[in-house]
Amino acid sequence: MTRVLTGLQPSGLLHIGNYFGAVEPMVRLQGESEMFMFIPDYHAITVPQKPAELRRNILFATAVYLAAGIDPKKTVLFQQSAVSQHTELGWILNCIAKMGELGRMTQFKDKSTGKGENVSVGLFDYPVLMAADILLYDTQAVPVGADQKQHVELARDLAIRFNKTFGDTFVVPEPLIRKEGARLMGLDSTEKKMSKSAASPKNYISLMDDAAAVEKKIKAAVTDSGTEVKAGPNRPALTNLLTIFSLVSGKTVAELEKNHEGKEYGAFKTDLAEAVNAWSAPLQMKIRELLADEAALVAVLKAGAEKARVVAEKKMQAVRTKIGVALT
Ligand code: AQP
User: Fold this and answer.
1) How many angstroms is it from 214 CA to the middle of ligand 1?
2) Active centre residues (catalytic)
């Protein structure tokens, strides 16, 4: 069985890009793979977080996973900070990671632009902690959106480097990137991906946006010049909107183009907003139900952390021995 792991930072309310990029692929793989899914709360604090909000977002992410269909009997679901082996291995990997390779990470460049020296060391170093998250569990496949490919490649490089230096220890992981919807772009710009920490809420469709908000955001979404509802290399805005439509409706882009032949952007956007709302309404209901029982969510995470800790500690014992710090 392939071992699969992913995590989504509780740095805000999740959006549909996060959902289709990383949550839904995990749901699909359940049953046929050995599943680990975690909440990378120590990644979230690489940018300032309000403690009460972070706590809320951790519980929210847990509710989203469960509402989406993650079954704790089939998936080890846990909070990163509850398994201290993640940060321990992160430190060890820090000692073999190079400043140069971290400096090349596109996400760091994007997130640090304009901040000069006033950016946390954690933000720079976060891909190393992510490598530890992955390598700790002998993960073979990591379902992620396209933006995280570079970070999974770093995990591969660090695994190979460690194995060469200290002997075979880590499985070299592969990113698992879906064909369509691996990089949903912001509604407000075809240059920037949809991102939960985007400056404007018009950039993303949050999983909890109500029908009116979805309609407003989609109505305001950028379009391409021309009037045809068609995807294509020179039509990034319509390609993005049609991809979203396809993901929430299960229809192909070709079908949707055909259904909207001769229709104007306005009518297309109304249909798209309806489709998004029809898809998100039952999900939102489940999320709310789950959030109403906080103790149950905490219990799921605790039980998951106990299972994760056993796997993680076994790997750490091997790592400590390999690097020479284990004295017995
Ligand atoms: N626009 C996107 N389209 C498809 N997949 C996406 N993902 C993120 N944005 C898109 C995928 O969602 C997962 C969550 O990753 P994360 O929370 O660890 O961080 P991220 O990639 O940095 O996501 P965001 O939404 O942009 O969050 P912030 O703003 O907090 O940095 C990953 O698998 C990611 O690829």
Assistant:
1) 19
2) 111, 193, 196
201-288 has which CATH code?
1.10.240.10
The full length of the chain comes to 328
Q: Which two tokens stand for residue 308?
A: 């994760």
Task: Kindly state the greatest CA–CA separation across the chain.
Answer: 75
pTM of whole model > 0.90? yes
Query: For residue 119, how far is its CA from the centre of ligand 1 (angstroms)?
Result: 20
Strand 34-39 and strand 3-7: the pairing is: parallel
Distance (Å, rounded) from C-alpha 144 to C-alpha 131?
13
pLDDT in tens, 6-45: 999 998 889 999 999 999 999 999 989 999 999 999 999 9
Q: Separation of 206 CA from ligand 1 center, angstroms?
A: 12
User: How many Å apart are CA 64 and CA 57, to the nearest integer?
Assistant: 10
Measured from the Cβ of residue 312, the count of other Cβ atoms closer than 10 Å reads 23
Lowest-pLDDT range of 54-68, 174-188, 210-224, 262-276? 174-188
How many Cα neighbours within 13 Å face the side chain of 35? 25
CATH topology of domain 3-176+294-323: Rossmann fold (3.40.50)
- Ligand 1 pocket test: which of 8, 108, 197, 204 has the largest number of ligand atoms within 8 Å of its C-beta? 8
Nearest CA to ligand 1 atom 29: 197
Name residues contacting ligand 1 (CB within 6 A).
8-9, 11-12, 17-18, 21-22, 144-145, 147-148, 182-184, 193-197
Parse the chain into domains and list their residue ranges.
3-176+294-323, 201-288
**What's the gap in Å between 195 CA and the centre of ligand 1?**
6
Which atom of ligand 1 approaches the CA of 193 most closely?
Answer: 1
Cα 254 to Cα 155, 229, 236, 275, distances in angstroms:
37, 10, 16, 16
